[in-house]
Specification:
mainly beta, 226 residues, Leucine-rich repeat, LRR (right-handed beta-alpha superhelix), four-stranded parallel β-sheet, six-stranded parallel β-sheet, globular
Length: 226
């Protein structure tokens, strides 16, 4: 295990500076277990990219404390439980992708709440969400959230008028029934997987390259297929 300094946190065998780490890019890195609470100390994060792993457990409520986040990619893991309403505190969030997990419960009204005016893409596809879709989802910015994908859930009508048939495809609003999940092998993979952004430092550990990021990220892949 590394000996991290007092101003660093240890995540999966790597030390990250609390003040200067802005991007944590560990996508497709074979990560397991729950999302570590130490991430909550990285308050300068703008990009949290943990997609395409085997992370389990619930999305922690402390994620709502990372108020500088612009990108939150947790898709294609094995996350369970409900979507924490604290995500609604992320007023700078632009891209939210929770696609292809095992999330249950209703979409919290505060998720597309009045303060998330920067949100441009919302992907909750291929989970086990139930109940009605909050009408607040149509109240984002001047014309609502430009891209919404709620396909393959168990969401019930009445559906908000801003959503089209494509956004809602695959709903089965039958009590106790979960819609069929498309196989992960058919999910579009990201063309720039593993891209290192913002001049991050590479560290070699155990034969695998780890990425510690600083500065502003750019060149992000699109989070899902259109």
């Amino acid at each position: 295990m590394p000996n991290c300094n007092y101003n660093e946190v240890e995540l999966w065998g790597v030390c990250y500076d609390i003040e200067t780490t802005t991007t944590l890019d560990l996508n497709h890195d074979q990560l397991t277990g729950e999302i570590p609470p130490e991430i909550g100390n990285l308050t300068s994060l703008t990009h949290l990219l943990l997609y395409e792993n085997q992370l389990t457990g619930e999305i922690p409520s402390w994620i709502g404390q990372l108020t500088n986040l612009e990108y939150l990619y947790l898709h294609e893991n094995q996350l369970t439980g409900e979507i924490p309403p604290e995500i609604g505190n992320l007023t700078n969030l632009e891209f939210l992708n929770l696609d292809s997990n095992f999330l249950t419960g209703e979409i919290p009204p505060d998720l597309p709440g009045a303060y998330m005016t920067s949100l441009t893409e919302l992907n909750l596809r291929n989970n086990q969400l139930t109940g009605e879709i909050p009408s607040e989802i149509c109240n984002q910015g001047a014309g609502g959230i430009p891209y919404i994908n709620l396909r393959y859930n168990n969401l019930c009508p009445p559906y908000p008028e801003c959503l089209n048939e494509w956004s809602l495809y695959g709903q089965e609003c039958i009590p106790g029934f979960l819609p069929p999940r498309p196989p992960h092998s058919h999910i579009h993979r990201h063309p720039h997987r593993g891209h290192v952004m913002g001049g991050g430092r590479r560290r070699q550990r155990g034969g695998r390259v780890r990425r510690q990021m600083g500065g502003n990220g750019n060149g992000l892949p699109k989070p899902w297929d259109r």
